[in-house]
Design a protein that fits this description.
about 190 residues; alpha/beta; three-stranded antiparallel beta sheet; 3 helices; 9 strands; binds inosinic acid; binds magnesium ion
Amino acid sequence: MSIPGASHDHLERILFEEEQILSRLDELAERITREYEGKPLTVVAVLHGSLMMMADLLRRIRLPLKMECLSVESYHGGVESSGSVKFNMTRMPELSGEHVLIVDDILDSGRTLEAITNKISSVCFPQSIRVAVLLDKKTTRETAVEPDYVGFEIEDLFVVGYGLDYQGRYRNLPLIGTLKPEYILPEHRS
Ligand code: IMP
Ligand code: MG
């Protein structure tokens, strides 16, 4: 399905169509609903990349959950993980006694989610912490972080769409794909 006016023409290859993403979220939401039944659940969004997934996933979870957001920066505009994770908020969310599910767009080196889980467990006192990601780049992992819920595993490709950006753009694409080389700065091309 192609939507006139969307920037699909910047894409080289489509990896996941919108219908595929949403039907996978149906399955994850079903599992999450079952596994957190009767427990106080707070879902924490890692901004900005997880916004699309949050909106679609959370509307499929049939539990009275709470929602919080965390703002971190880890990529700084390139196509490779920078290694440093910066927290942009003035306060951490209130998560004491909650079962926390952290949602991020993609797990790459794992440094972002490692920093976030470490910080939440040391300053927020939750009952438990789990991680849900839409995409898992297993081969580029540099930490021990293991996601509890994964949408799709992908090879080591730089992808955009459905929340994922290149230099802040393409987050609004309803699908996920790779960019044509001409839309990637020469210094970022592999
Ligand atoms: P990590 O700390 O290396 O695991 O990187 C995680 C963050 O890097 C994600 O939250 C994304 O913002 C960004 N990232 C990693 N891979 C990609 C990609 O293929 N496209 C867009 N952003 C990515
Ligand atoms: Mg991100």
